[in-house]
Structures
1.
Amino acid sequence: MFNQVKRLKARLQREKGRLLKIPAVQLIYNTAEGAGDHDATQRAAGVAYYAFLSIFPLLLGLIALFGFFLSSINLQDELLNYVGDNIPGATDILKQNIASIIELRGTMGVLSIVIFIWGASAMFGAISLAINRAWDIHRYRRSFFIRKGSELGMVFGIGILFLLSLGASAIISILRGVLNLPVANLLIVNMGSRLVAFLLILVVFLLLYKLIPNTRTYWRYIWPGALLAAILFEIARTLFVFYIENLANYQLIYGSIASIIILLVWIYYSAFIVILGAEFTFQYGRTRHPVTMGSGADK
């Protein structure tokens, strides 16, 4: 029995060595191994924590900002549909609070924006640490104030692009209703909205993987990882929304906090995709570029 196990183990090692000679398999293996070595799951949990703290202040701030218009039932429905399509689990919480937010829009708007800026800055700080860890960078030469300035810049730059990518379909849906487009054009409009949303999220990943690593980066090594992350993000978002709407019985387990749990899980998956894409980018660049990456040098 012992000899059989030993022979099986040796055979598996030979098969592994043979498969790893295939460049694509080697790249996938190195990405998975790097994600484990660099604590990708724990890093994603840290990003999800700060993202969760900032996402509701952002939504509440937007609701307060447009509170004068949200008295319209149609616009409230459009907002809730947008949130439901892009941020699973957040719709129920907004439904419970939207009337109070509109009534107190002045105070809520200012407070929400302050909390959002703090939480989003911390979130991008966590993303920065995770992506640099994926690139095997453990030291930083930038000062505290430069790092914080960069994080705030990403909040208003990359953050706005991300929101636009999520809102592209909702914006086009509103315009479609206003313009009264014929049925024949609806398919083209829907495909166009999905394409615009995908291209915007691709730009977000490109900027993350280009600007955040504290080392020299090259566009030709970044775009495959950004493309992979964008595709995974769109697939995950579509499947997650479908699961929530059609298959899940999550309320049987979590009861009244089910919406919060769903939202946390979705944010965690999204954060993990960001980090996995960074791992893939690093491994792909390392196979193509002979210079040792992760040196910690400034860009």
Note: Residues 36 and 140 are 22 Å apart (CA to CA).
2.
Amino acid sequence: MGTPYVLTPTSSQTHVFDLSINKYEAICSQAVVAKKKNKITHVQFNPIHPIIIVGDDRGHVTCLKLSPNLRKMPKEKKGQEVQKGPAVEIAKLDKLLNLVREVKTKT
């Protein structure tokens, strides 16, 4: 995944987005909390494995493994070296945040 993030609105679901694919539509959604009155309070990505840990306000912890279809890396173009690592992902996110900041300052 390029630039993933997770939203957990007031419902009991997590919505996984990837900014490099589509910032308006979730690439997957998963019900995490069994009861609607429980609220999700923490989400943590595993930096090595494609796993997300989700905690709720009752102390329950759920481990979600991302689908292999969501973990496909972009194909390398001939003659180009694909950059990898946390520094590249941070640079992508900084670039996106700077675009948003520029739009806000213009309006």
Note: The first helix runs from residue 86 to 106.
3.
Amino acid sequence: MPKKIKILLVILALLFSSSCSRHEINSLAMVTCALYETTEDGKIKLTIEIIDPDLATKSNDKDESNTHILTGVGESTSEALSEITKYFSRNLFTQFVAARIFHEDFAKADLERILDYTLRENKIRESAYIMVLKAQNSQHLFKTTTDLDKNIHDFINKNAERYNKEVGNSVFVKTAEFIRAFYQEGVEPVAGILEVMEKEETLNEYKEKQDQKDNENTNEYMQRNKTQKGDSNKEGNEQQNEEPQQNGDESGEQEYVLAYRGLAVFKGSKMVGELNSDETKAYNIITGKIKNSVITLPFEDGYIDIFVKRCKTKIKTSFKDDKVTVTINPDLNILVSNNSTQSDVFDAEVAKKLKESFNQHIKEEIINTVKKVQGFESDIFAFGEYFRHQNNKEWKNIKDNWSQYFKNAQIEANVNTTLRNIGTIKSPIENKGI
């Protein structure tokens, strides 16, 4: 009998608790992301995106947003949040926060007061991503068209899911990881960069990249297509004389899109620089994180797209004559995913030359990227961690001045690749080779 009573009590407890939880959730406002800025008088301007549970469950319109945007200003994060709640009846629930987004100017000033609040507040979600926003007007972030996503929260989460499968020109750093790097010796934090761009700007950027590829083709290739290209240029000139269409929606308002690429370099709690997409790929190779990513390699009369399946990188450090040497040894598994050249990559000599060109390309990218970061005096690669493990005695003597030793370190790279697959056709499609 007592056993049956215990089971009944457990069932009743579960039923009552679920009922209470449902009522509680409907009375909450779920914060999905937070944007931090600095006002002219040095206060914190906090803008949050919240999901209304009622709109989330009732709305079936894919184009209809289920979010509200609220803003508060205060001397601290707590004060800014209090300012928001004055004009909002529901309690703010922060357990679904996808990202803490810091405007570039805010990040360059100092994140220390935000990190302090994050560590002290037990309701803060440590798995939320840390991001830096690049935008002339930060409020355009909440006016962007995010493809099929209804809100910034969905855009970030879906990109993060893809990042777990494909690591290339961006980074996703959780709050806990950022704070760990902030406190840990021998490594500095990084964060992903979220950029708001005009829709027309993204199209022009794509066109410039395509034009650059076309212009870098060989004279032989240009001569072969001279007649066709002349006709296309005439058509292009005629199109340029046409009145350009206004970019934007039917109301004439400018449309904005989000781009997530590159990384922000921090030294302590301050942003000191950034890396572009290609440099971020080099960073991910150095840290051994790159996977399922495409690297476009200039090769002979065109380009070959190299698919990096996986990467394992070993770091070796040494100390001699008061100078640190860092040797980076990445081992990559690669495939040929696209061949726009006239070269037959099935040929052993061509395949060998391709590997050598790829290795040299990656080596240059690695060394150039590290040299750029050395100028920031910020060891985001964790070379200091490797040095501490491999040269512990010397580390104790130089750790307090590691940023200078990192800045002046000699960087070497030895790239090894294994070409696993070169496709299912023997020759480029232009040669009709199968």
Note: The first strand starts at residue 28 and ends at 38.
